[in-house]
Design brief:
Aminopeptidase; 4 helices
């Protein structure tokens, strides 16, 4: 693995995060990537550090990975759950341990916060992501179902 620094995402990183999110968009259903919109969302997330954590993986080449995780509690998981919402490593750096380093940092943060578990969901068709998460120690525990809609049409 190249020397990698895992650190908190900062506002100055967001243009590079937008590029990474464009790569993620290619394999996942997602809308257009807009840096201004990302800045607005990130500003809101920064106000709630107890709920959101955004991490950057940085090498000598610059920002090469991004992970976003949300922390929440439920009746069954009183300690709480960490849910990885987005994880992307740039194509040229995949397979070098950078993604697992991001997951490891998220797991360490979840443990430090006293949470009970860490979870992630992937698209059913994204077999490479499923292999990756299994390699990081995740197992299939449940089925996550979703419903997407647009503002003008609610199903």
């Amino acid at each position: 693995m190249p020397e990698v620094n895992i650190r908190l995402c900062q506002m100055a990183d967001l243009p590079e995060v937008a590029v990474l999110m464009s790569e993620l968009r290619e394999v996942a259903r997602g809308g257009e990537i807009d840096v201004a919109q990302i800045r607005t969302l990130f500003s809101e997330m920064e106000k709630l550090p107890e709920v959101y954590l955004n991490l950057i993986a940085e090498t000598a080449e610059g920002v090469v990975g991004y992970l976003s995780v949300v922390f929440y509690k439920t009746v069954f998981h009183k300690g709480g759950t960490a849910l990885i919402n987005e994880l992307i490593v740039t194509q040229s750096q995949r397979g070098k341990g950078i993604g697992c380093a991001l997951v490891k940092k998220a797991k360490e943060e979840a443990l430090a916060r006293g949470l009970d578990e860490i979870e992630v969901g992937t698209e059913n068709t994204n077999e490479s992501a499923q292999r990756f998460y299994r390699a990081c120690g995740f197992t299939e525990e449940s089925l996550l179902m979703g419903m997407d809609w647009t503002h003008d049409k609610i199903l």
